[in-house]
Amino acid sequence: MISHSVELLLLALAWLAYGALHSWLASLGCKAWFQARWPQYTYAYRMAFNVLAVVLLIPILALEQSIDAIPLWSWSGVIKVIALSLMLAAVTAFIWSTRYYDMNHFMGLSQWRNKTTPVGDNDAFTISPLHRFVRHPWYSLALVILWTRDIESTTLITNLMVSGYFIIGARLEEHKLVVQFGERYREYQRRVPALIPLPQRYLTATEATKLTTRDTNAA
């Protein structure tokens, strides 16, 4: 019979493999390789990427549920009310923030319909209200949702691995954004924190507009 520690190690390795594959598929190098090899199917890349990301989560979550987890801590009393309120606020903010994204493009539906969009990232440089306070608001909100849950041995491993992926993934994503947007994005990095809001490190609405509309040649 497999020990609990071995089960947790397998869960951690599953998350590690998922994160490595997800990052590789999202990389500019992988996208360029795919476009060079199968240019006629580049319109399907983002949709396939998103579908694969969801499908590959299923066996990991099934593995987590199959493990007889050990309770570690749970919120109670006023702290539980605060934790649940933070979780609800994070979910609400996530849903609200989608209005500032082209979700059809994000999911790959636009590319699938027009069948002409290249596989590479060609999004415009925009700063939504939440992006004025953190550079990766979806990651920040996901972290709130993860760590306001009651924690068992399995959820602790999942939380640690996913949190680590967010930190590493944010760095990898920003490398692409610096390549794409140059000095404008470097200035954005200097002025806005990555994941945790900090006092006096944010952009006003006017500053965000000026930065996004700056002449790329001047940048």
What features would you describe in this structure?
The chain has one domain (about 5-215). About 65% of the residues lie in helices and about 0% in strands. The chain has ten helices and two strands. A two-stranded antiparallel ribbon has the order 1-2. Helix 4 packs antiparallel against helix 7 (about 135-145). The longest helix is centred in the last third of the chain and has 29 residues, at about 155-180.
| Strand and helix order | HHHEHHHHEHHH
- The general outline is globular
Strand content: under 5%
Strand order of the largest sheet: 1-2
Number of helices: 10
For the residues shown, what is the average pLDDT?
91
Q: How widely separated are the two ends?
A: 61 Å
Radius of gyration: 20 Å
Main beta-sheet annotation = 2 strands, antiparallel
Total beta strand runs: 2
Structural class: mainly alpha
Helix proportion range: 55-70%
Uncertain residue ranges = none
The tally of structural domains comes to 1
Task: Give short descriptive properties of this protein.
219 residues, mainly alpha, two-stranded antiparallel sheet, 10 helices, 2 strands, 2% strand
Could you give a short description of this structure?
The protein has 10 helices and 2 strands, in the order αααβααααβααα. It is mainly alpha-helical. It has a two-stranded antiparallel sheet with strand order 1-2.
Tell me the layout of helices and strands:
Elements: H1 4-26, H2 28-37, H3 45-66, E1 71-73, H4 77-97, H5 103-107, H6 109-114, H7 137-147, E2 151-152, H8 153-181, H9 183-191, H10 205-213
Antiparallel strand pairs: 1-2
Helix pairs in contact: 1-3, 1-8, 4-7, 7-8
